[in-house]
Amino acid sequence: MSDAVLRVDQVSKKFRKGQLHDSLRDLIPALIRNALRPRRPGGELGDREFWALRDVTFETQRGEALGIIGRNGAGKSTMLKLLAGIMKPTSGVIHVGGRLSALIELGAGFHPDLTGRENVYLNGSILGMKREDIRRNFDAIVDFSGLAEFIDTPVKRYSSGMFARLGFAVAAHLEPEILVVDEVLSVGDYLFQRKSLDKMRDIARGGASVIFVSHNLPAVTELCSRCVLLEAGRVHAAGPTGEVVRDYINAFSIAAAQASETMPAYVSRFVMRGAAGENVRFSSGETVRFDVEVTARQHVESFAVSIGMADERQYVVFSTSTERLGAPAYTMDPGDRISVTFEMDLHLAPGAYYLGIALHRYNVQKDYGQFAVGTLFIHADVDVRGVVNLVPRLVPAGAPFA
Amino acid sequence: MIADRLRALAAHREILFMITWREVVVKYKQSLMGFLWAILMPLVIVGAGILVRGGFAYLAHQPLRADDIAAVTLKSVPWAFAVASIRFATNSLSSNANLVTRIYVPREIFPLSAIGSQLVDFGMAAVPLIIVLAIAGVGVSVQLLWVPLIVVILVLLVAALGIVLSAGSLFFRDVKYLVEVMLTFAIFVTPVLYDVDTFARWKTWLMLNPIAPLLEGLTAAVIHHRPPDLPWLAYSAGFTLVALLSAFAVFAKLEPRFAESV
Prior knowledge:
Number of helices of chain B: 12
CATH superfamily of the largest domain in chain A: P-loop containing nucleotide triphosphate hydrolases
Strand content of chain A: 35-45%
Helix content of chain A: 25-40%
Structural class of chain A: alpha/beta
Oligomer: heterodimer
Radius of gyration of chain B: 19 Å
Order of helices and strands of chain A: EHEEHEEHHHEHEHEEHHEEEEEEEEEE
Order of helices and strands of chain B: HHHHHHHHHHHH
Number of helices of chain A: 9
Number of strands of chain A: 19
Radius of gyration of chain A: 26 Å
Distance between the termini of chain A: 55 Å
Helix content of chain B: over 70%
Distance between the termini of chain B: 24 Å
Number of domains of chain A: 2
CATH architecture of the largest domain in chain A: 3-Layer(aba) Sandwich
Strand content of chain B: under 5%
Number of domains of chain B: 1
Strand order of the largest sheet of chain A: 5-6-7-3-8-9
Largest sheet of chain A: 6 strands, mixed
CATH topology of the largest domain in chain A: Rossmann fold
C-alpha cells in the first residue's frame, strides 16, 4: 500500500532489567568486564536484557485512526516512545511520512509560575508550532479551553482539570499530519473527554492520521477503525477494531474457561450482533442479540443459562436467565452442545459494559460455572450519565402527553 | 553528523528561544531582587578582588592602583557568566527530565538554553559595568573591537563544556559534584582576581586554562588599549573549536540513551 503515512517495519526494542550503573564507581568495573567479554551480536539478549518489542510491523494510512491496545506491559508505551522519536529502536525502521506530533503529556513544559497565556506559547512551540501559528490560533485555543478569564493567571493556581484542558487545547491546534496520542485523555471530566475524542475524530477526518495508544476500550472502539493488539511485545492481532477488541477480550475469557478442564460445562461460543451484523459497539436503545453456545464435558442437569451485565465499576446493572424468561431447564450429556439466543433492547447510558454468562442449576442452588464473555460499548447522541438511558427530553410546561 | 545536528538545532530554534525565555522570565518573576541578581555575583567578585589586590599591594609596599580594580571589575562579569552557565548547563537535562522523556527535540537545546538565559544576565550586568568603567575613565580606543570576538569565543567555549557536562551528569551523578568542586576552585587558577603577569614564572601554565587568554585579552583591549596576546588568543579559539566539535560528537552518540537514563 503506497498511501501509508507511517510504516513500522520489523521494529524491536531491547531493555535492560535492574539498575544501570550511574556512578563512576560502577562504570569502571563494568567497562573492564565488557572489555574482557566477547561482543554479543545485536539480535541476542544479554543476561539481564529483555525484549519490550519484537518484530513489530504495522502501517497506517492517511485519514485513518489506528488504535494500539494491549495489557499493561505489552509494549504500548515503548511503541509510543519509539513513534515519538524519544527512543530509538534496537533494530527495525520506523518510516514517518509527514509532520508527526506526539501527545504523551498534556501541557509538556508548562511552568507553574507562568500564566496560561505564556504557557500556551511555550507549550505550543515545544510541540512544534511556529510562533506565528500560535499567535494566529491563540483565540481559538483559549476558546477551546474555556479558560478565557483565567488566561493571565499563573497555572500553579489552576486545578488539574484546567491544566489538562489548556494542555489539550494547545495540542488540538497543532495541525499535524500524524498525531500520536497516549492515555492523556483519561484526565479531566466526562465533557472534556467527549470534547477531546470529538476533536481527535475531526483531526482524522481532516486527512491526518491518528494513532491512539490506550487501554480505554470504549474510546478506542469509538475512535479507531483499525487496531493493533500487542501482547508480550509482539503483534498479537491487527485488523478492524471490532475483531481485534473481541480477540483481546476473548483471550482472557473463553480461552481461559476452555483451558480449565475441571468445568463440567463451558461457554464455547459467544457472539453479539445488531441488525447490521456482528459488533461490539451499539447505540443506546439498539436491539441486540447474544448467541450463547454451551458445551458439556460431563453430565449436567436442570440448569439455566443466565446473562448479566456489569458497568465499568463492576456493578451489576442487569441480569436475566432462560429460567426467568420461562424456558425449561437444560440437561446435557458429555459432548452435547446447546445454543441460546437472548434478544434485548440496550437502553444503557454510554460506556463499556462487561458481559457474563453463568450456568446455574436452580433447583439445588449450584453454579456450573461463570464466564466473562465479552465487553460491549454503548454510544448515544444525547448526553446521559449513569448506567441507563431513560430517553430524556424537554417538553413545554403543561403540554399533554403525546 | 555534526552538520545534521546543527541543522536539527536550527530547525528547532524557536523551542531553544522559548525555553531560554522561560528560564529568564521565571527567574525574574520569582525573585524580589530581579535584575540585581544579575550583578550580585560580579559585585561579590569585585569585592573579593579589591581585598586580594589590596593584599598584594600591601605586601609589595605599593599603592593599590585604579587600573587593577578596573581590571577585576571588567573580568568579574564574564567570569560570573562562565561559572553560572557551566553550573546550569550541567544540570539542564536532569532538571528538564519530563521534557527529555516525553517530547522529541534535539536535546542540545537544554544546555544551550541554560547558557542562553545566563547570557541575558551577562548582557544586563554589562550595562552597569560599562557605566562604571566609563566613570572610572578607562577611555575608548579602536582595541575595543576585540571585545565582541573574545565574547563569542567565551560563549562557544562555555557551550562546549555545558553540552558535554550535561550529558555526562545524566549518566553519572558524580559529574555534577565534580563540576561543583571544580567551579569552586577554578577562581584560584584563573586570572580573575589577579593578572597572569603577577606570576611571571607560571604565566604559561596559567594561560593553558583556555579561559585565561580570553580574560587577559579583555583586560588588554579595554583597560590597557593594547591588542590581546594573539598566539594565546588563537590557542583559546582553537581549543574552543576542538571542544565544540567533540562536544557535539559525544552528545550525539549518547543522546539515543537519554530517555532511558534520566
